[in-house]
Write a structure and sequence with these properties.
alpha/beta, Purple Acid Phosphatase, chain A, domain 2, 7-stranded mixed sheet, 14 strands, Calcineurin-like_PHP, Metallophosphoesterase, Metallo-depent_PP-like
């Protein structure tokens, strides 16, 4: 009798395992790994604000997952550039974190994010903007805004980026810094790109410098990608004002009016900054406007910092964006993907965001 009961229980256990394995197999089979529509395409990766990954030690491993995934997909997705929208850290110079809002000092946060990008050093070029959290403006006692960014992201950090570096201007210390810099890259088909990264709330002198760069004869036929931090709100509107007591600071609308609209070759603007707890729609924005030359300017905001439990949650659930540039030289396909969710068969069904604001196509002029 005991033997029959034991055999029955073992048979039930085997059935359960087979059903479970079948479920895993189905999930694995149905999971769609990121791929290019054309083998002749190339892609850019957009990383959102990273501050909530580095301010807690527990979340830093998720950022490592994201960076390791980028490295693993370098060839399959023909990744040519990695961009970050800024807010690399939560607090530039804090030395006594309370353990609740964050448990890493400013130095530890800078070291963590520099270490994460270090995975790409010598392998892939990357460009990062600086965000409001990367400056000491939260103390409201220091003016002008200052940051430790140049110490952790000097030009020499990544030789792949340094090879592309063409223009820089001075920061508030009067020193040349990648806070405001331009990088030139040529695609295999010969299409020329200029990546222009601007500091948070760029000063008038910075916007004048940027305008001077994009209007140079040697860049006049380049497709310019502008990377800055605070530019659009979730209603797809240009940000009109900033809630910080800063002098000589320009938000999205001013950047549009003083730089983008008057430039004939800025075709894509990428920014971050915005977000609301576990609300994907309030982390993104998109709009197109015509510049002074009558050409379309595609303006895209992508962030994820409050996904996964808000500002004290996972840091953003590993979300990033893949921009595939098709071989026609005009079509760009945007997809939103989480390498973190893609790790396990039990969460792979969450690894893609398919809403129209997260997956779309646009055409460059």
């Amino acid at each position: 009798m005991f033997s029959r009961i034991l055999k029955y229980r073992l048979w039930c256990l085997v059935c359960i395992l087979l059903v479970s394995l079948s479920g895993f197999a189905q999930r694995n089979k149905s999971f769609e790994s990121p791929s290019l529509e054309s083998h002749a395409s190339f892609s850019f990766i957009v990383l959102p604000d990273l501050q909530n990954y580095v301010k807690f030690r527990r979340n830093q491993a998720i950022l490592d997952v994201m960076m390791n995934w980028v490295l693993m997909q370098k060839d399959s997705l023909n990744i040519e550039m990695v961009m970050c929208t800024g807010d690399l850290v939560e607090h530039d110079d804090i030395i006594n974190p309370d353990g609740i809002k964050m448990n890493q000092t400013g130095r530890q946060q800078w070291e963590a994010v520099s270490r994460a990008f270090g995975k790409l050093d010598g392998v892939l070029p990357y460009v990062t903007a600086t965000g409001n959290h990367d400056y000491n403006i939260f103390s409201y006692t220091h003016k002008p805004k200052t940051t430790h960014f140049p110490s952790y992201f000097p030009a020499e950090k990544n030789r792949e980026s340094q090879k592309l570096l063409r223009e820089v201007t001075t920061n508030v210390y009067g020193e040349s810094s990648l806070e405001n810099a331009a990088y030139e890259w040529r695609s295999a088909s010969g299409k020329m790109f200029l990546f222009l990264s601007l500091e948070f709330a760029p000063r008038d002198t910075v916007l004048s410098w940027a305008k001077g760069v994009v209007t140079k004869d040697k860049y006049k036929n380049h497709t310019v990608v502008l990377l800055t931090h605070a530019y659009l709100n979730y209603k797809n509107e240009h940000v009109k004002a900033l809630s910080y007591d800063l002098e000589d600071a320009n938000a999205g609308l001013a950047i549009w009016e003083k730089l983008v609209r008057g430039s004939h070759n800025i075709q894509l603007v990428i920014s971050g900054h915005i977000g609301a707890k576990d609300n994907a729609r309030k982390h993104v924005a998109y709009r197109t406007d015509l510049n002074a030359a009558g050409k379309k300017v595609h303006q895209m905001t992508f962030n994820a910092q409050a996904m996964g439990g808000g500002h004290y949650g996972s840091g953003g659930d590993g979300w990033l964006r893949i921009l595939e540039f098709l071989p026609d030289g005009k079509t760009v396909k945007v997809k939103t993907f989480s390498p973190f969710f893609a790790l396990s068969p039990t969460t792979q069904h969450l690894a893609w965001r398919r809403e129209s604001y997260d997956e779309f196509t646009f055409q460059l002029d």
